[in-house]
Write a structure and sequence with these properties.
Helix content: 40-55%
Structural class: mainly alpha
Shape: globular
Radius of gyration: 16 Å
Number of strands: 0
Distance between the termini: 25 Å
Largest sheet: none
Strand content: under 5%
Order of helices and strands: HHHH
């Protein structure tokens, strides 16, 4: 949302259709972890970036089913990863 006084002028803009459910956010977290892992970033470094423990990163990566893992490995997050 743009607030009053921004470089875009006055007024407010809302984003429609954005899914911010806990499950959706967890899927995005898993996707980011997996994409970093595929790029050979160490799991300890992924934990630091994601603000979770090393063991949590390993556990979450290992819990992704093979079919989903394959789909996540091909996905992109806003073209960043």
């Amino acid at each position: 949302m743009f607030a009053k006084g921004t470089v875009y002028g006055e007024g407010v803009r809302g984003e429609g259709g954005l899914d911010t459910s806990r499950e959706s956010l967890e899927r995005v977290r898993d996707l980011v972890m997996l994409r970093l892992h595929v790029k050979r970033i160490p799991t300890r470094a992924i934990g630091i970036v994601m603000n979770v423990s090393h063991s949590t990163v390993v556990r979450r990566l290992n819990s992704i089913p093979p079919r989903i893992r394959e789909r996540y490995e091909k996905s992109e997050v806003g073209g960043l990863l």
